[in-house]
Structures are given as C-alpha cells and as structure tokens.
Amino acid sequence: MMIKITIEDRNGSRQLIEVPDDMNLSLMEALKAYEYSIMATCGGMALCATCRVEVLEGKDKLPPMSDAELDMLDTLPDATMNTRLACQLRVNEELENSVFRIGSEEY
Amino acid sequence: MHTTDICIIGAGPVGLFSVFEAGLLKMRCHLVDALPQVGGQLSEIYPQKPIYDIPGFPEVKAQQLVDNLMQQIAPFKPAFTLGERVEQISGDADSGFVVTTNEGTAIQCRAIAIAGGLGCFEPRKPAIERLEAFEGKGVAYMVKDPELFRNKEIVLAGGGDSALDWTIFLSNVASRVTLVHRGESFRGAPDSAEKVAHLAAEGKIGLILKSNILKIDGNGHLKEVHIANDKNEVTVMSADHLIPLFGLSPKLGPIADWGLQIDKSAIVVNTTDYSTNVPGIFAIGDINTYTGKLKLILCGFHEGAMMAQSAFKYVYPNQRLSFKYTTVNGVNAF
Fold first, then answer.
1. Which of A91, B90, B126, B163 could form a disulfide with A77 if both were Cys (CB 3.0 to 4.6 A apart)?
2. In this complex, do A39 and B124 lie within 8 Å of one another by their Cβ atoms?
C-alpha cells in the first residue's frame, strides 16, 4: 500500500508524496528518496537531529517516541511539542494523510 | 615531531583496518582521533549493539569488532594520538605533510587518509543574540573545570541530561545557579529531574521554565542574560557565566578548511582510489561521498584497501607496487 504524506519544505511549498509501507522505510529515508535537502548525518541513529520535522497535522496518530528520540529532542534548543525525528518514524498507515514541515538547516 | 608514512585521521573501524592494508605494503600508520579511545562510533555510541553485515561474521558486537581489528593490526605497530583533534594540515604530496592537533602534536607523513566518520561532535549553539561575542568571555559550552565557577553567578540553558546533571553539580559550587528550559517539564532522566525540582523548591537553585534566552550582554565579559517567557515578557538577570547545554552535533569541523572539495558535509572522492582533489590526501569511510555511496563499514574497508594501494606511490615514489595475497605471503610484522 502507498502511504500519502504531505511535506512542506523550508520555503513553505507543499508536495504530496507517496511512500510504500512494505519496505520498512523511515520518513527520513523517504524524504531523501524524494531529494529533500536534509543532511541525516548520522544515518538514522537519532544522533544528529538534522532530519527533524514539525508535525503540522496527524500528530496524535503517530507512534510514541523511543527513549533515544526523547533524549535527543529534549536536548535541542528549539524543539517544540510537535517536533519529531524523521529517522525514527516508520512509514506505515499511522502516517497516512499527515503533514510534516522540514526543520531548519542550521545544526 | 612524530614521523610516519600515512597519517590516518579517525580511529574508527575503517581507519583501523587501513593500518592493516597499509602494513601489507610496508607502510607505517599513525592514527589520530578526537575521542579518548579507538573505535569511533562503535565504541562511543553503540558498543554492545550487534552488527550483522560484516562478511564472515553472522553477528558481531560493535566493541568486539573493534577489539578484533586492534588485534589484526597489532603486527603493524600503529602509533596513536587519542583525545586530540586534528586542526591543521600543511605541506603537500611532494615535500610531505605535517598534521597538527589542537594540543600541538605534530605528525610528519607522506600521505593522509581522512577516516573521520561523522566528523567531530561539536556543541550545538542556540540562537541567542551576541552569543558568539562572549565565547570564552563568560560563555562556555561544556564544563571542563568546575572550580572556574566557584562563587560565581551561573545561568545554564537546556533540558537534557547534561543540563540537569551540571545544574545539580554546580549548585554546590557556584554562588547562584539558574536553569532556563524552554519546556515545562523534563522528559528524560527522572532522578535528575526530581533532584532539580527539589533544589528549586528549597530555593537552592533558580528554575525558569517555558522560557528562552534571547540575548546576552556585557562589557568585555558577560554581565547579563535576557530571558523571555512564553508570554514574551523579558527579565534581565545578572550572570558571570552562561553554559548552554544543547548536546553535541556532528560537524566536519576543521576538515572544512583544508581546501578539499565538500558536498553536503562529506568529502568528494575519486572512486578509483578514494583520493580527494588534493594529491596525497584520501578520504575513506562515512566521511566521503561519491555516486552510489553506501555508509557501510564493509564499504569503508574496501576503500581503505584501495587507498593504501594508491598511497604507496607517495610513500615509495621509486618502487613498483606488486600485489600479494596474505595466504601466499603471510603477514610480515614490523
């Protein structure tokens, strides 16, 4: 099944992307596949926070955070209650119709 | 001054294995790593995690792989400089290079292999007006010597474990400790969070939640911190020191200043031999990038082998390289 997710880039423009749910992809990997400019320096280990996203819609359906993700977000200077690490979100039906904004490039 | 054939920057798995490949070609190596121990991410971040994609090892724990690599390269007697970060490279492939660390250690070599992995972990800097102007003049991103803060007024910022831990520790050292956190609670380490709440209730520390530091000011040295709450009301607080603790983030660091071609925080290499645009300087493992790059340890091992073959011409410019199998030739220790 293809999961439909809306991505808002740093310039505010939105794109609907479709990601298969049977490839065990993280949202970070999907964003990279769609050539969004994210560093994802650590490759998905919740270490660098360069893949962080703001959840604009669909927050309540998302799975809870792991300790590693919580620890990282707690540490960041500008995370909000809606910030998640894209590398820690598996693309599955919990993400269907959700809207994410790519985090700022700093870090 | 140390002298070697190849200076390897980064002592993670790829840097370590390169010592073996270089050793087979009778080239000596000196490894430098900013971390106090070898192994890079494997030892520092996930020593007990299993790795499943090392050829010949259905499963191996990260630290075990590092230990095995150390055993494998022991015959080639590599030199190590640990806990120091390479700051500068001078010279060239013709006259030789000198690699210098932040502690002033200098290593003379014929070739350089950058196996820097994710790069250096540097403190994450929050967006605070005039923050950089007061670095070293009251602003510090880590606590090296707690005595520096004795009887001083300290403001810490952050919500992670290290912010909590240093708040607790410095409450016994400083004359006043204030912790500023953007959230309304602390999600990690419940013990530390409880202790901080307790200290605040007893009036031993100041705890300012749902607030951010907007700007700092002073006269040559930090004097005051401007803190805004969630209603945008600003309070000005006197402070001798500000310690923002927002964790570490992997950065290229000084590598970015060595004239190498960089793309998205990685070093661009030629896949024939993993050489960079600077003759005599190679980049292997997670730090490099090329079409089809996979950040895998096993790819880094391959890159190290290819690098060594190519580095040979800088170390032994007048010799012809002949390829030999270890099964035929054995491993001839130095």
1. B126
2. no
pLDDT tens digits for range B49-72: 899 999 999 999 999 999 999 999
Can you name the CATH fold of A2-102?
A: Ubiquitin-like (UB roll) (3.10.20)
Taking phi first (over 0 means left), then psi (-120 to 50 degrees means alpha), and beta for anything else, what does residue B241 get? beta
Task: Tell me the per-residue pLDDT of B282-322, one tens digit each, with 9 for 90 and over.
Answer: 999 999 999 999 999 999 999 999 999 999 999 999 999 98
Instruction: Tell me which of B164, B196, B211, B249 to substitute to probe the interface with A (most A C-beta atoms closer than 10 Å).
Output: B249
User: Chain B within 8 Å of A62 (Cβ-Cβ)?
Assistant: no
Query: Residue A50: closest CA among chain B residues belongs to which residue?
Result: B249
> Complex ipTM above 0.90?
no
- Selecting from A42, A49, A74 the residue whose C-beta is nearest the C-beta of B188 gives A74
All structural domains of chain B: 2-121+249-329 (3.50.50.60), 125-246 (3.50.50.60)
B265-300 b/e (C-beta count within 10 Å ≥ 16 → b): bbbebeeebbbbebebbbbbbbbbbeeeeebbbebb
